[in-house]
Amino acid sequence: MYKAAQRRIIVPFLAPALVLLAVFFLYPLIKTVDLSLNEFSRTGTMRFVGLEQYRLLSGDPDFYNSLKNTFLITLIGSGMLFPPAVAVAWALSQRIHGERFFRFVLFAPVVLSVAVVSLLWKFLYHPTLGLINPALESMGLGALAKTWLGDPATALAAVTFVSVWHGIGIWIVLLCAGFERLPEDVLAAARIDGAGEWRVFWSVMMPMMRDLLRVLVVLWVVQSLQTFAFVYILTGGGPFGSTDTVGTLMYRAAFERADFGYAAAAGVVLVVIMLAVAKLLNKVMKRDDLQY
Amino acid sequence: MVKAVQKLMVGLAAVSCLALAACGGGSGGTGGQAAQKAPDAKNWRQDIKGGPIEVGVLPAVGTPSLKFLEDIAAAMEKDYPGTEVKQTFANTKTRPALEQRWRAGDALDVDYTMFDGTNPALLDWADDGALLDLKPYLDQVDTTTGKPWLEQFSPAVMQFMQHPKTGKVYGVPSELSLQVLFYNAALFEKHGITPPATWDDLLKAADGLKAAGVDPIAVTGLFEPYMGMWSDNIWMRTVGYGKAREVLTDGKGSITEDPGFLKGLQMLQDLRDKKGFLKGFEGTDFTAAQAQFFQGKAGMILMGSWLVSEMADVIPKDFKLGVLQFPTVTGGTGDQASMLAAAQLMSVSAKSENIPLSLEWVRRVVSVETQTRRATEVGEVSAVKGVSSPPGLPGIADVVAKADRLQAAYYGLMQSKAKDVVYPEIAKLMFGKQDAQQTLENLDKGLRRVHGG
């Protein structure tokens, strides 16, 4: 009796979320799979071709190159994002003078649009008119000056850096929340036991933050695998494909060549990869819950 | 409990999918509105009635070029009561969204880039009946000139306007873009450098500019098709437009068969090795490259004739501009007098609910009066006969007069997969990542992959 009543009452609570899930995730996903099984003309008429788009995709070196670049962005970005974000969040969780100001400064780029940030950095990176190279030269570090966006060796890292610079504020806020909810008594106990601040950070705080870090890593991976806007505006995928991601490849296929079937197939493969990577990361990083 | 929730989820998902699928557009295509009955070609102007129309425009908000179009819209709204002309920005970056509207049956009444007779990828809309055949209207005698409207346009642009198979006309050019070599005339005069007519002259001019401490040629390294302008033009001279297009765009034959391809790449390599390009061009975007040219930091730039109107705000008042056709190549077996060009074509939707008013918009935009004002005041090059050359482009009239034929820019590559093969390889050559021979081999491999064979 109680269970039946519980069952009845759960339906109206879950229904809105489920409808939204169906409309904005399941339907597009199913539709994308459907599109990927067809060939399109520029005017949008389509013809069923089965798995042909997947066959083309599997033989396309441009797709593998974009996939490699996408993973590199995820990897390089992880290195650029998490160490400084954790360090800054830790610093902000200490009682420091001007904490609010620092939080504002770090969060400010987040409210700027991707287009504005990209144009700003396109100027900063400019080899002769920008700010970075002249600054390096004026410090006697001219040997470090590069054509940042124009050199295949640096372009991907340069684009990734802009993406991280733009979004790091969000991650710092989330990590700050994690640091602030750590139990003071556990930290105090560690200090009473003689642990220095480094030891407290590394051996006490980090293990207790593991769950949060796992979620943030998965979120970063999912977000960075979808990278599109920064690459599109800053380099368009160049020089010669060195920053091309699955997102920019899909965009070109769909909207320059009207090859929607191919773009959809690339999208489906990316979704499968993202789900697999997220699952794997969750499994690898999962540890027994800490009770505190 | 868990099972009940699972059932509920599956059920909801299925219902939502079915409902949305029912609302979705089946096999896609240019569905939605039905094609409208085209007005009688002889009396279409008498059928003009006021009403709302939406037209694509290329200039951005706030630019002088847009003012002309706003004036036309205001005049039409006055002449035909009830008319409302909505102007929608229809330039490059908005094309994906606008094309989606065409696919969904919500087309603009007049739009750009829907047709180009020289580009196989842009014939589909016409072939699917989405565009109005303009030929019957263009064949009518224009009362202001006493000649058929079609004769108003330069014969050189007919290849862009006309469907290559049916001969029907689906686009009318509001402006023409010519790929020309701009040079800083004052700088050339000051250092006694001769404007280059031949490739050898170009190399000498590059030496002269370098001796004067100026980078010879401004180019962007962040937009590969603009680097490709160099190989496109060189190959037109060393191979010939028709042969080069067959290999690059149509996939007929191999790029290794005609020695002109390797010769062209070698010439580009020579220019690169001479340090002919702007310092740091690899990381310079095209707006910055163009600005650096007008700031006197580079002596030449190969660009479309739109350069002057696009950069009007940054060109110093005392800047002395020179315009040249791409240099000829002594001993080259290709076309020495042809020019690469593109026409900005306006097409009318066959499903427009007010075709006569849409045609009137087109007629007014390409009228000699409007075209003359646009040429004079904002430096647009017109495809309409009798329109004077833009004074902001000194020498363009001579350049065009010397051209024996206008050829489609980019060889019609821009909407094809081959674009992703050709221009990145040219970029690698210009960046110094490979030599001419390696470029040729990579091009051969890439073109075989995308064209088969």
From TrEMBL, chain B:
Keywords: Signal. Transmembrane segments: none annotated. InterPro entries: Bact_solute-bd_prot1 (IPR050490), SBP (IPR006059). Gene3D superfamilies: Periplasmic binding protein-like II (3.40.190.10). This is Extracellular solute-binding protein. Residues 1-21 form the signal peptide. It comes from the Bacteria. The lineage of its organism: Bacteria, Bacillati, Actinomycetota, Actinomycetes, Streptosporangiales.
